[in-house]
Each structure stands twice: as C-alpha cells, then as structure tokens.
Amino acid sequence: MDDVCVITGGGSGLGRATARAMGERGYQIVLTGRTPAKLETVVTELRATGVDAEALAGDVADRESMRQLARTAAKRGQVTAVIHAAGMSPHMGDPGVIMATNALGTVNVNDAFYEVMDARGCVIDTSSMSAYLTPKIVMPTHVYPLSRTDRSRFMRGMMRRVHLFPRTVRTGVAYGISKHFVIWFARTDAARFGARGVRVVSVTPGSFDTPMGDLESEESMTYVRNSAIKRLGRPEEIAHLYAAAADERMGYLTGTDILCDGGCVAGGASPFRRRGGTG
C-alpha cells in the first residue's frame, strides 16, 4: 500500500506548498479545507505532475468532519503523515471561531487520526510565532488538560480568559492563546501516539508570504525588522521543514516544537515593541 499524506488547510499558502513537497517525495496526497474550489485547483496542479491527489472539503472545528477525513485517508493506503496546517488568523473571524478552529481543531485532527496512523507515521500540528510573543501570564494553562476530558468546559475556560481583555484585542488574544495551546497539545500528545509507534511534533512558523500572511502584512513587516533574516519566509521553505520532520528517518524526533521564524523571536520581537530590533 502507498504512503498517504493528509494536509489540512491544503488549498493555499503553507498547505499548498507542502502538498507539492510531499507529492515530490512520492506520497499520495489527501487535502482538506473549507473552500472546495481552492482544493480542486491544488489537486489539478498535483495531478499534472503525476501525483496521486484527492480533495475532501472539511472543517477542522467539526469533529465528525475530521473523523470522515481519517476514514477516507485510511482507505487510500498507509497514513504515514498528517500535516495539520489549517488555522485562522486574528483577521479571519471572531474570537470564539478562532479558538474553535485553532485549538479545538487541533484536538479534532489528532483524535481522528490516532486510530488510523501507520506505526511509521508522524503528526505535525502547526502553531504560530504568536505563541512565543504573547506573554505567558496570559495563557490559561490550567484549562488545557480539559481538552482531553471535557471539551465544553475547555472552550468555556479558554474563552473566559479571552473575555478578560478589551474587545479591541480579543481576536489577537484568542489567536495567541490558541496557538500556545497547540504547542502544549502536540508535546503532551506525543506519549499517547508514541505507544503506537507514531511521532507528534509541532511546527511554529513566523511571518510568511502567504494569503493569510497578507492579512497581517503591516504587523509582519514590523516583526521582520527584528529578524535575523530581513524578509518574509517563502512557503516552500517551511514546506520542506514539514517534509523533513515527517520523514521516518527522523524517528527519534517527537514531543517538541520547531520554530521557523527567520530568527524573529531570538531577535527580541515583542507585541509591545514596534521599532528596532537586534536580530
């Protein structure tokens, strides 16, 4: 049976570039996302290069949608790579939708694929540089474990923290908290998956030249000034990072986050610091 790579958010940006990179490595590609037209465009591109690809519309915030995705992927072959690149930026929805998509969506993806992953496999969840830039005191880390025991209480607890802040900043706060949770969830999920021989890591992008990045372009260019590499990242650069992390030859890599931000965090970037930088 062929190796299958599932990519959420595969219709554009980092997911689209990663689909190409994984296709070049011989994987069958299964894409999902909320916009069927975008997915079909990528499928057409992949098939034109000889890659076996399929698209299935779905929403990571919908638990049953992700279960259906996992079942479909498992019918195609051995699911050895799941790259969860779907997410919402602060400009793409209200705080509750952002939290449900980014935080609960990650739980849904990991849970759905737990039963179907091949023992050589790797799940890669995607965080954001905001997880490092948002002050730690903001993070309701005591709520995070509820994601495994009581999803309703988990969401109420996460949003309760968001609602402590003024309305004008709540989308940004929800985004930062949700992406910090992704790192925690991937790290702590490594033991569960490890018992089945599967690895779990998270990848944390900085500012990249993507449609989602364009929505945050002013802020992104501010952070570039703090970076060691004074430009936006190119989607193919992180696509090859995903591919490398998923490679079974990286079999001892699990339970950790990989920050790919051009040296922005190391350069002292801060949401409270809008000028200068020593990166």
UniProtKB/TrEMBL annotation:
CDD domains: SDR_c. Keywords: Oxidoreductase. Residues 3-180 form the Ketoreductase domain. InterPro entries: KR_dom, NAD(P)-bd_dom_sf, SDR_fam. Belongs to the short-chain dehydrogenases/reductases (SDR) family. This is NAD(P)-dependent dehydrogenase (Short-subunit alcohol dehydrogenase family). SMART domains: PKS_KR.
